[in-house]
Amino acid sequence: MKNVTITLQEEVAKWTRVWAAKHDTSVSKLVGEVLRQRMLEEQGYRSAMRQFLSTTPQPLKKKGQYPTREDIHER
């Protein structure tokens, strides 16, 4: 693990310390978990984008007509 120094506004730092204490954790662990979640979200987004972009585009308009809403959102 790496140690880092962060700078917070006093109000944010106070809120963070109180929140961490209420949830029986440390500010360090809280910040680490928030950043870890952000990293995983970004990785998931990139993965989904790569998957989407790897598919062949399909024409929306067939036989001169656009599909109906029901056709697009088949249940």
Verbal overview:
The protein is mainly alpha-helical and 75 residues long. The protein has a domain at 8-53. The chain contains three helices and no strands. The longest helix has 28 residues, at 27-54. The chain is elongated, with a radius of gyration of 23 Å.
SSE series: HHH
Assign the structural class, choosing from mainly alpha, mainly beta, alpha/beta, alpha+beta, or little secondary structure. Answer: mainly alpha
Oligomer category: single chain
- The beta-strand count equals 0
Largest sheet: none
Strand fraction band?
under 5%
Distance between the termini: 48 Å
What is the overall silhouette? elongated
Overall radius of gyration: 23 Å
Total DSSP helices? 3
Q: How would you sum up this structure in a few lines?
A:
The chain has 75 residues and is an all-alpha fold.
Task: Give structural attributes.
mainly alpha, 3 helices, 75 residues, single chain
Architecture blueprint of SSEs:
Elements (H helix, E strand, L loop, with lengths): L9 H13 L4 H28 L14 H4 L3
